[in-house]
């Protein structure tokens, strides 16, 4: 009971946060809090199989997959509140009320003592008792649910499939298109020069050199150019000389004059 009174407020707050947060990623993280708390309650109620399934399958696989999809695809807050199905808010309210009624009836039966206790249900073990119920009394409902899940997966694949309206371009067609782009727009027909092909450097901030010795702008990363961090070597010449003077690598920097030596000895 101690775990329930600690986790129940956390689950309620996280569930309310799922309804009122503006970002879908935050809603997925709050749903993870609810699922992990529910798994702990399963462990407290001596249901190790449901505890493992809740952690491994629902929280570790399905929910994390949702979270990765949201982070990769991205969902704007303005898109998440748009209703694409007419009347879905009313249907959600009716469904929530029906679910609440089922929960109240289930908790009432357990509280009044009409339900079977955990001792009777787990007489041969929790996993053995659960398998006996699923594959004997409720085997038809279990197989029907499996068929529905497979049908939903196949339907998602069919809806996500796109028919190719044009034939797949061949290598010759791509080469001809590159030459047409070069004739019409002046686009370079070959591959772009990779960065850092000169001397011993192989970094994205080292441009490639053209035959005349000038730097190729096509080899400079567009991200660096957009940030304004691209600078030419002549512009850095003064900075390099100043840096060499500071570290003592400039010409005649290692030689010390007698006056300087005397001042150092006097300081010592």
TrEMBL record:
Protein's cellular compartments: Cell membrane
Key words, A-Z: Cell membrane, Membrane, NAD, Quinone, Transmembrane, Transmembrane helix
Annotated signal peptide: none
InterPro entries: NADH_UbQ/plastoQ_OxRdtase_su6 (IPR001457), Nuo/plastoQ_OxRdtase_6_NuoJ (IPR042106)
Chain residue ranges for the region called Disordered: 243-268
Function as written in the Swiss-Prot or TrEMBL entry: NDH-1 shuttles electrons from NADH, via FMN and iron-sulfur (Fe-S) centers, to quinones in the respiratory chain. Couples the redox reaction to proton translocation (for every two electrons transferred, four hydrogen ions are translocated across the cytoplasmic membrane), and thus conserves the redox energy in a proton gradient.
Family annotation (NCBIfam families): PRK06638.1-5
Similarity field: Belongs to the complex I subunit 6 family.
Protein name per Swiss-Prot or TrEMBL: NADH-quinone oxidoreductase subunit J
The species this protein was found in: Nocardioides koreensis
């Amino acid at each position: 009971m101690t775990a329930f009174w600690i986790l129940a407020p956390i689950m309620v707050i996280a569930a309310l946060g799922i309804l009122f947060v503006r970002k879908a990623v935050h809603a997925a993280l709050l749903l993870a809090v609810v699922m992990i708390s529910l798994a702990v309650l399963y462990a407290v109620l001596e249901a190790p199989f449901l505890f493992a399934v809740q952690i491994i399958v629902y929280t570790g696989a399905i929910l994390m997959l949702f979270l990765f999809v949201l982070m990769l695809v991205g969902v704007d807050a303005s898109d998440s509140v748009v209703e694409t199905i007419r009347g879905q808010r009313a249907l959600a309210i009716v469904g929530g009320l029906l679910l609440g009624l089922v929960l109240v009836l289930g908790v009432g039966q357990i509280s009044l003592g009409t339900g079977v206790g955990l001792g009777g249900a787990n007489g041969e073990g929790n996993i053995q008792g659960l398998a006996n119920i699923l594959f004997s009394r409720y085997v038809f409902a279990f197989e029907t649910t499996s068929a529905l899940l497979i049908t939903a997966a196949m339907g998602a694949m069919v809806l996500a499939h796109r028919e190719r309206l044009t034939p797949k371009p061949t290598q010759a067609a791509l080469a001809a298109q590159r030459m047409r782009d070069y004739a019409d727009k002046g686009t370079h027909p070959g591959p772009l020069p990779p960065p850092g092909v000169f001397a011993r450097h192989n970094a994205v901030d080292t441009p490639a050199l053209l035959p005349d010795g000038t730097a190729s702008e096509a080899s400079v990363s567009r991200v660096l150019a957009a940030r304004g961090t691209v600078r030419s070597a002549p512009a850095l010449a003064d900075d390099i000389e100043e840096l060499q003077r500071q570290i003592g690598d400039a010409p005649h920097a290692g030689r010390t004059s007698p006056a300087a030596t005397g001042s150092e000895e006097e300081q010592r």
